[in-house]
Amino acid sequence: MNLVEEFNSYRTRMNESILSEDNKVLKRFFNLDTNAYAAGAVDVKAKEMIGLSCSMVLRCDDCVRYHLGKCFELGMKREEVFEVFSIATLIGGSIVIPHLRRAVEYWEALEVEKEKA
Question: In CATH, which of 1.20.1290.10, 2.40.10.220, 3.30.200.20, 3.40.630.10 is domain 43-116?
């Protein structure tokens, strides 16, 4: 299993496990997250770029991967993603660099997946 498949499979499996519990707070939080990224006054692409940048600054690799996947699905170009990377690194400083490396690795894995399809 490759990096992209492994991440998506794990995320799906664990989200299903979490949401199968009768916990109203967790279910509402997941729903709030879903609704926050829906189209509104700010378009979905911009919201995903914001989410990606914030996730990098907060140093959450799972969130970075999730938002990279969404950006890829939305047709973002490599140049656009690297501009987001540059903003996140500028805001977060050098502590973001390890996450930047993993983000680039994941983006490249997404590109490889597309080439295989």
Answer: 1.20.1290.10
User: Domain residues of the chain, as ranges?
Assistant: 43-116
Which H helix or E strand runs over 19?
A: helix 3-19
How high is the mean pLDDT in each 10-residue block of the chain (117 residues)?
A: 94 98 97 96 98 98 98 97 98 98 98 90
Asked if 100 contacts 107 with a C-beta cutoff of 8 angstroms, the reply is no
Which phi and psi angles does 21 have, rounded to 5°? Answer: -75, 155
Return d(Cα 49, Cα 70) in angstroms, integer.
Answer: 9
SS3 (DSSP) at 64: helix
Distance between CA atoms of residues 14 and 4, nearest Å: 16
